[in-house]
Write a structure and sequence with these properties.
Number of helices: 12
Number of strands: 15
Oligomer: single chain
Order of helices and strands: HHHEEHEEEEHEHEEEEHHHHEHEEEH
Radius of gyration: 47 Å
Strand content: 15-25%
Shape: elongated
Mean pLDDT: 79
Helix content: 40-55%
């Protein structure tokens, strides 16, 4: 029987190799392993920390349906800020539209009258524009109770209770000149009479013609207000503050006011600008109060609380517009120039005076009248025509 050890077909058992202690490894092997480990730890980790490995392209991956890499997204502006700007723009447009509508409504509420004289010898142009501001004693529309409260009496018809000439130069400050209603002046085809008689005889046209012939200034715009309208405007703005140096008592004007600063109602204001019997200066004192009060009224009406508020502007504007009458040839632009010039005078940036007077109690066939100082008056009106500085004392 053959020896089993000689059978080469039988698998030979493998003698296990003894495990080597790492400490027993060859020094060269250990240095090589350490170098590989050190190389990986220094180079590979540094690359992993500082470099971004690009994504494989679809051609490299073989992914036919894989989308290309998306570009970085840009930051869009905040939609909240856009909405805020849109809201501000909308409110601004709405405000402008509201103001335009209100101004148009106010202008449309004003009556128009024919105040341009149809005569061939009207004065020529001058250095600026001149407007006539008239307050009438018309009682039209007043009830019997209102006539009693206002102290206007029951006289029918209309006369000029206040006449002022507003000159707006091309350059320089405006000038407001009071023309006393009892001024003794020539009236076309009517002889010589008091200034307010021209309105009674021929209405606004004859009044404008009389002023033009007396001053040599062409009237480019006309504005008129009556008793009832004046009271309504003052009440609409909440009264006007006036500071009185002394108490005022005038039975005919139904006026009894203490000294000091106080808010005048519409009725009190009407009595204040009309009274003259308790004033030793008569008509001259009255026209000074009229200019003083008109300046305070315009300043109150031009306050930002009224002008910049569409609702307040509508309330005050329509009350004022319904009380006014303007000349047919007076445009909205001229109305704005009148308002701005009056505001300038109210703020002290203009001249406010009375035409020079020679005699306040000049006796005529039509009663006591006011006689102008011809030299002083001509000097004043010539300066306005030329655009020179006004040197006449108030």
């Amino acid at each position: 029987m053959p020896n089993p050890e000689d059978d080469w077909t039988r698998p030979m058992p493998r003698t296990p190799r003894p495990r080597r202690d790492p400490e027993d490894r060859h020094e060269g092997d250990r240095r090589q392993d350490d170098r590989r480990q050190d190389d990986w730890s220094e180079d590979d980790w540094r690359q992993d920390e500082t470099e971004r490995i690009p994504a494989p392209r679809s051609s490299d991956r073989g992914d036919r349906g894989a989308p290309p890499p998306r570009p970085p997204r840009r930051r869009r502006p905040a939609y909240g800020f856009r909405r805020f700007l849109a809201l501000v723009a909308f409110l601004l447009i709405a405000y402008v539209v509201a103001m335009v509508v209100v101004v148009a409504m106010v202008w449309g509420s004003i009556d128009q009258v024919d105040a341009a004289p149809d005569v061939p010898d009207r004065p020529g142009g001058s250095a600026g524009e001149t407007y006539l501001l008239v307050g009438t004693d018309s009682r039209e529309g007043l009830t019997a109770e209102q006539r009693g409260d206002f102290g206007t009496g029951s006289t029918e018809g209309s006369r000029t209770d206040t006449v002022m000439m507003l000159h707006v130069p091309t350059m320089g400050d405006p000038t407001l000149v009071s023309l006393p209603r009892d001024s003794y002046l020539p009236i076309r085809d009517q002889g010589t009479n008091k200034l307010n008689a021209s309105y009674s005889l021929g209405g606004p046209e004859l009044l404008v013609d009389t002023v033009e012939q007396a001053t040599g200034l062409r009237i480019g715009g006309y504005l008129e207000i009556g008793f009832g309208g004046f009271v309504g405007v003052v009440d609409e703005v909440g009264g006007v503050e006036m500071c009185l140096e002394a108490p005022i008592q005038d039975e005919k004007a139904h006026l009894d006011l203490p000294a000091g600063c106080q808010e005048l109602t519409g009725t009190e204001a009407l009595g204040y600008v009309r009274m003259r019997y308790s004033d030793p200066r008569g008509d001259i004192g009255r026209v000074e109060r009229q200019r003083e009060f008109l300046a305070a009224l315009v300043q109150k009406m031009a306050s930002p609380a009224i002008v910049l508020n569409p609702w307040s502007l509508h309330q005050v504007g329509t009350a004022t517009g319904g009380a006014l009458a303007i000349g047919e040839d007076t445009s909205m632009l001229e109305g704005a120039r009148i308002a701005l010039a009056m505001r300038a005078v109210a703020n002290g940036n203009g001249n406010s005076l009375t035409v020079p007077v020679a005699d306040m109690n000049y006796q005529t066939d039509v009663g006591s009248a006011v006689l102008w100082d011809e030299v002083g008056a001509e000097e004043l009106f010539a300066a306005l025509r030329r655009g020179d500085a006004v040197t006449i004392a108030p």
